[in-house]
Amino acid sequence: MPYRVTFVCTGNICRSPMAEWVLRHHVDEEGLDAEVDSSGTGGWHVGDGADERTVATLRRAGYRSAHIARQFEESWFGRYDLIIALDGGHLRALRSMAPDEAAHAKIRLLREFDPDAGGDLDVPDPYYGGRADFDSVLAQVEAAMPGLLEEIRGALKEG
């Protein structure tokens, strides 16, 4: 059975699809038995594609991208092994939705997987920014990938 990971941000058009496609790239490259997707805490952009700046940032870095925004639903807690919030607001929203302790335990912040993140575990929202803000988000996402991949590898060995 594949290990299932989802990333969650606000509208599911900037940060979470970026993290999704970076992790998908690494999972595919390593041949890991994992499924990766993303969603948002809000429904403002449901049905929309990823922000064009997210797509451009991913392409410049050599990643693929194909995305339709959706909103995270409480019933999905049973579907995922790991639910990754992009900032503290998403973390709180997901924790408030978690139906039990088992679901609560699946929720983590992305930057928890980056040993150099220090105390700042939020990935800032680049939506109102420019290219440099999207590039910065990509750098933070990429910095978390080695730790996240280690977590996935470990879970697959146990599973």
Automatic annotation (TrEMBL):
Keywords: Hydrolase, Protein phosphatase. SUPFAM superfamilies: Phosphotyrosine protein phosphatases I (SSF52788). It comes from the Bacteria. InterPro entries: LMW_PTPase, Ptyr_pPase, Ptyr_pPase_sf, Tyr_phospatase_low_mol_wt. Transmembrane segments: none annotated. Its EC number is 3.1.3.48. GO terms for molecular function: protein tyrosine phosphatase activity. The keyword Hydrolase applies. It is an enzyme of class 3 (hydrolase). Residues 3-151 form the Phosphotyrosine protein phosphatase I domain. Belongs to the low molecular weight phosphotyrosine protein phosphatase family. This is protein-tyrosine-phosphatase.
